[in-house]
Amino acid sequence: MCLINFHYADHPNYKLIVVANRDEEYGRPSKQAHFWDDEPMILAGRDLLQMGTWLGVSKNGKFAAITNFRDPSEPPRPKSRGEIVTQFLTGNKTTLQFIEELQTKRESYGGYNVLLYDGQQFHHYNNRLDEVNKISPGTHSLSNYSLNTPWPKVVKGTNHLQQLVEQNQGEIDAEPLFNLLSDQTIAPDKDLPNTGVGLELERQLSSLFIKLPNYGTRTSTVLLINHDNSITFIERTYEKGQFQFDTKFEFSMEQR
């Protein structure tokens, strides 16, 4: 997952609006969003290599999503980051309790950012910086450094989502949100970060939607959690940058 734009606690209809792209190698096996057979509370896509996920929601309204912290010099770590989302969605810890647990094993995982929402609290945690942020009401974005880091795609995603929210104070149609995620515009060189991957790759990774020969945006997700506790989850699947199909779920949140 390389870009998560979200709007929180500042809309007449929605508690939470999430608009996200998952970027991954095309050859890595995964399954489209579904309620898992072995964890039926979870609605998420699934990485079939490590059996975790990059973004998901539970039937009782918890949400979690993870991105890598971009550092090409980092050595392999023993644990898969995708299990973090699964553990939070299936557990009974609050966001801060879960982060305290993550801090005790932060070196076991490659660098990551995780967003955790338990229906009452919303927090971000970065294990490389050991940084905890309470999410304030409004629009935010997360890519592969930390929360609201002013990379071009982060700034653009935040601004575009904020504009869409301000223009749509009633029900929000998913299609403009997906259009936001489909932007393939490369940022100017002067605005690019230097994350150690080289200038050409920095350029290719600077767009909201990525399309490279062997790597790019595999899925786009729109998640809407309404004030009446109804949930809409739409995942758009791509094959090497080409639209394939949408998978949509609508359900009412279960009481805990």
Automatic annotation (TrEMBL):
Q: Which InterPro entries match?
A: TANGO2
Q: Which Pfam families has this protein been placed in?
A: TANGO2
Q: What is this protein called?
A: NRDE family protein
Taxonomic placement: Bacteria, Bacillati, Bacillota, Bacilli, Bacillales
